[in-house]
Amino acid sequence: MSPDAALALFHSSDVLSIGLVADEIRKRLHPEGIVTYVIDRNINYTNICISGCKFCAFYRLAGASDAYVLSRRELSQKIKETVELGGTQILLQGGLHPDLRLQFYSDMLRFIKREFNIHVHGFSPPEILHFSRLDGISVLETISRLHSAGLDTIPGGGAEILCESVRREISPNKCTAGEWLEVMKTAHESGMRTTATMMFAHAEKYADRVEHLARIRELQDSTGGFTAFIPWTFQPLNTQLGGTPAGGVEYLKTLAISRLFLDNVPNIQASWVTQGAKIAQVALRFGANDLGSTMIEENVVRAAGVSFRIGLSEMRTIIEQADFQPRQRDCYYNLIEPAKQVS
Question: Of 45, 252, 298, 311, which has the fewest beta carbons less than 10 angstroms from its beta carbon?
């Protein structure tokens, strides 16, 4: 699909037809009728951040009364609970702390791997770039050290919209779009797999969403390192940016166009965290083949006033009611047998 064709679809009001075609593409890519999910926990090791993004309700400045850095004891307890609930991975992310150096994160990874047999999906591109700058080393060396310490895969956080004019408006202190892509390219070329995301419906235009998708597709053509794409809507409550949250129709249209445009990304994930269970269920017929994580814990979206929760049994029911077979997966989208059924 050309960028012009994608832009025309964004301006179209025929959302059902767009969704129908996206569903056909999903069937071609995943004809087995399976929708996957993963059991994991989002662990935010600190909320202290110097970036000050206008869309974020989670971050705090150092010295704030509710600023924190997780202790090893707190981290261990969170992972222990995750494993006991059948979790196979953790999503490890945090703010851009001004003082913590790469050794802190390497030691944290070694501690996790020493104590637990669990996959670590952690440190988005802005974090990795921040670590490299604080230590005065290259992104490649930073990724290499983190990987050696126990980092398995890298999440696609911090992408927002990969358009420089939008980033200057909503996150002027965060990495540029080019830098985000370069971190991902470096990770892919060093043998690591990553995901890609898009946070939309804030300051961007439809053309900016198309630019974002085009840049993801171009990098994927080069490296093949993205396992999945996860689009989700900006949540304005408690943020400096403010505004009105996008509704289900806008979300479903964007997700369906993502499935049509990203012909080289195998998996599209529905975002029940921002849209709730019912819209996420509909998304399974708009191109999505994955329902994401049970999210035993989630803090960033919740800080913006959104508190949808789904247990494992409900997630499986949602998938079955949409006439799919629910299957647990790992971070590489390999199907696995559940270690323990929890609700």
Answer: 311
Residue 337 pLDDT class (50, 70, 90 cuts): confident
- What would the pLDDT profile of 199-251 be if each residue is shown by its tens digit? 999 999 999 999 999 999 999 999 999 999 999 999 888 788 888 888 999 99
- Give the long-range contacts of residues 247-250, CB within 8 A, separation 24 or more: 248/275, 248/279, 248/282, 249/15, 250/201
Average pLDDT, the chain: 92
Q: Which two tokens stand for residue 135?
A: 């230590």
What is the β-pairing status of strands 194-200 and 226-233?
parallel
Asked if residue 333 belongs to a domain, the reply is no
pLDDT of 255 over the 70 cut: yes
What confidence tens digit (pLDDT) does each residue in 268-311 have?
A: 999 888 888 999 999 999 999 999 988 676 454 444 444 446 78
Residue 308 corresponds to which tokens in the numbers above?
């949808």
Ramachandran angles phi, psi of 291, nearest 5°: -105, 10
* Residue 220 in tokens: 């994927």
Is 200 part of any domain?
Answer: yes
**Cβ proximity of 229 and 216 under 8 Å:** yes
> Residue 28: which domain range?
3-328
- Report yes or no on 334 lying in a domain: no
Transcribe 261-300 into DSSP letters. Answer: H-TT--EEB--HHHHHHHHHHHHTTTT--EEEE--S---H
State the amino acid at position 93 in one-letter form: Q
Contact (Cβ atoms closer than 8 angstroms) between residue 214 and residue 258:
no
Over residues 66-71, the mean pLDDT reads 95
Cα angle 29, 35, 37 (rounded to 5 degrees) comes to 125
The CA-atom distances, in angstroms, between 299 and each of 46, 94, 113 are 11, 10, 23
Q: Report yes or no on 18 lying in a domain.
A: yes
pLDDT digits 0-9 by tens, 142-160: 999 999 999 999 999 999 9
- Of 217, 312, 302, nearest to 268 (Cα)? 217
Q: What is the DSSP string of 90-103?
A: EEEE----SS--HH
CA distance 111 to 212: 36
